[in-house]
From TrEMBL:
Residues 1-111 form the Integrase catalytic domain. PANTHER family: INTEGRASE CATALYTIC DOMAIN-CONTAINING PROTEIN, PROTEIN CBG26694. InterPro entries: Integrase_cat-core, Retrovirus_Pol_polyprotein, RNaseH-like_sf, RNaseH_sf. It comes from the Eukaryota. This is Integrase catalytic domain-containing protein. Coiled coil: none annotated. One of its GO terms (molecular function) is nucleic acid binding. One of its GO terms (biological process) is DNA integration. PROSITE patterns: INTEGRASE (PS50994).
């Protein structure tokens, strides 16, 4: 899952299971507010399941599944993912560790 917000950046998650993704999104939404549209390239069923899980926790949440307005934006996300991965790999090598959960915080700080 790729989640990026200009204020909070990103956070590590262990899986793309609906319950875990919904819990992370709920935490983010309660911190900075929920968006009107949730975009995902994982398909409508995945996104519908996430929205359903979120609605179970937050019944008054208004959220719909939307498609990106510009198909080119997916390329931008992929480039950003590559940059983040390169920075994280470099941090892990420099610090002689495999603790990517800590490393992602340093990458976030520098990004």
């Amino acid at each position: 899952m790729v989640y990026q917000d200009h204020l909070t950046k990103f956070r590590p998650i262990r899986s793309k299971h609906t319950v875990e993704v919904a819990a992370q999104l709920l935490d983010i939404f309660l911190m900075i507010g929920a968006p009107a549209i949730l975009q995902s390239d994982n398909g409508t069923e995945f996104t519908a399941n996430i929205i359903s899980e979120l609605k179970d926790c937050w019944p008054t949440l208004v959220l719909v599944h939307g498609k990106p307005r510009h198909p080119q934006s997916q390329g931008s996300v992929e480039r950003e993912n590559g940059d983040i991965k390169d920075m994280l790999v470099a941090w892990l090598a420099d610090n002689h560790t495999q603790d990517w959960v800590t490393g992602i915080n340093f990458v976030q700080f520098h990004k």
